[in-house]
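User: Can you predict the 3D structure of Geranylgeranyl diphosphate synthase, type I? Sequence below.
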Amino acid sequence: MPDPQTLPLLVQNRLSDFLSSRSSILARVSDETRAFSLFSREFLSGGKRFRARFCYQGWRSVTGASATASDPIVSAAAALEVFHAAALVHDDIIDNSDTRRGGPSAHRRFEAQHREAEWSGDAAAYGRSSAILLGDLLLGWSDELLDEALNALDDRAAAQRARAEFVRMRTEVTAGQYLDILEEQAWGMHDDAAQLQRAETIAVYKSAKYSVEAPLALGALIAGGGEEQLAALRAYGLPLGVAYQMRDDLLGVFGDERVTGKPSGDDLREGKRTVLIGMARLALPVSGRRLVDELLGDPELTGAQIALLQSTIRDTGAVDRLEERIAAAVADAKSALLDAPLDSSAVIGLSELADAVSRRDY
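Assistant: Sure. Here are the predicted structure tokens for Geranylgeranyl diphosphate synthase, type I:
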């Protein structure tokens, strides 16, 4: 097996070259656009590169090859990273999040720029508006990187199928994000069982498909993969993507800021109606549900109130049940790889990735 650091390095180098080329375009417009270049480069310098790694393993599952800097799969993997960055920029605006990966979120960076320069007007409004534009710019750049990858393919049918996969992913994750913010407002219109079902749907479309299944399929399609190979990768990717989001649900409530880069209990302050919350509510008496519903979504929650919600959720057994569901989903994902028509070394890589995304520390 190749060094697991090879792909992240290739993707980072491609991103660096791409951002340099786009920074020169921005500089010709005005020196004042430098913030776009600086913030996008900083935002794309970190992260676990899970989507890029799944894309690569999807490609490798078909080709059995190791990527080099000139392979189209590197640009495709980089495109997913840029798309993810755009989604995070917009997501942080929607959630009014102050931090991302241990540093200020994009809109807070622009807001700080306004305050430090002592410009006129509303610093927060400037921060939000500028970050929306940065997210839009990143979305466009992700398309450019994908076009670069697909234009290099000799198999035009494969290129068209890969483009269709990317388009579907983009539509589904946007719809999933909308359902997420809708549920924060409309949850009270549905009974407890329906709330859990709706949370599961959000987990599939906001995260599972976009984080794991679609990147795998995109990589396999770029490689010219057949239907049996695509089916095996999807059968692996969807349950693993659900496990990935369930782990995120736990991290959003119980995660250590030093590990997650976001404050502990952030999902509680944002009012996320996750699978974890749905399972906890089903197990709570009426008084307990009332407590959760009164506190969940209050951006001014104190440390003591966060601790109270955490203990309330844990005491229902929802954490243990969610851990069981994560383990079952990972087992389903790995079982889909057994006897699948995929490269054996890529199967090893996929198995290791399944453990990496489902066992992230609190």
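The two ends are 29 Å apart (CA to CA). The chain has one domain: 6-358.
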